[in-house]
Amino acid sequence: MGKTGPSLKPLVLLVLVLLVWWLTPPLLRSFTQASFQELQAPAISAASHLKDLQLYWSLRTHSKQTLIESGRDLARLNAAYELSRQRESALRKEVEHLEKILDLPPLPEYEYIVARVTRRDINQWWQQLTIRKGSNDGITKGAAVVYAGGIVGRIQDVFSHSATVQLASSPSFRIASTIEGDRRPITYQGEATAPFGSPNGKINNVPPDYQFKNIESKRLITSHLGGVFPEGLTIGTIESLSPRADGLFQEGTISLSQDLMSLSEVAILIPIEPEDSAQHNGS
What we know:
Layout: H1 4-23, H2 26-60, H3 64-102, E1 109-119, E2 128-131, E3 144-147, E4 150-158, E5 163-167, E6 174-179, E7 182-190, E8 200-206, E9 219-222, E10 234-243, E11 250-255, E12 265-272, H4 274-282
Antiparallel strand pairs: 1-2, 1-12, 2-5, 3-4, 3-12, 4-5, 6-7, 6-9, 7-8, 8-11, 9-10, 10-11
């Protein structure tokens, strides 16, 4: 008896802790979880800053020739971006002109807040990630999160100095979308994926008469009905389509970009109110 008694103490203690947690009111439980996240955030942020510092010093060891070649490539990219910016400016003026002629409401504008990715849990690799900015930096719950290749997901929880992002590959993520070249809305939803596996999603309510016209028509993009997401952002690529069981619509599999595997930086879109937009344009 003397040997079995002490060995059962950790198990009894664990059962008591779980019982207390289960009986705790949801409001107090949520407060405790948020407090733990706030307590943990400085350590995670410090580790992220140390990683950036390590990258900085590793880059300092590169030769001058490597830096010269990198600078040359960067100059070429800047030139290409400048041409794209000028074209975007001309297109924006044309859109504003058409809005005035047709008496249409202006398209929403966004402020981009760039944030570093600080943490990614192996058990929730394709469900969520943590970024290094929070409510103190203007991040709001539900905001769209994007990167150069398209959408990443949306802000799920916000804390003072950090926030969690619900990824587009999460089964809980749903959004209105369209197939490029076809404006009819369809529903996109993430699918459960094993850690380090290929991220996938699925689409429903695809019109029965839809057929692929070319490779470009396989791109799934955000719809104007997508809420916080601007229209036209890449979600993924359609891999297959098949008739649904009811025979009324088609359903399909969506392949998401492998770039989502190694994200180190994302951008959060914060809508600019009309008054703020007027101030931005005037400044």
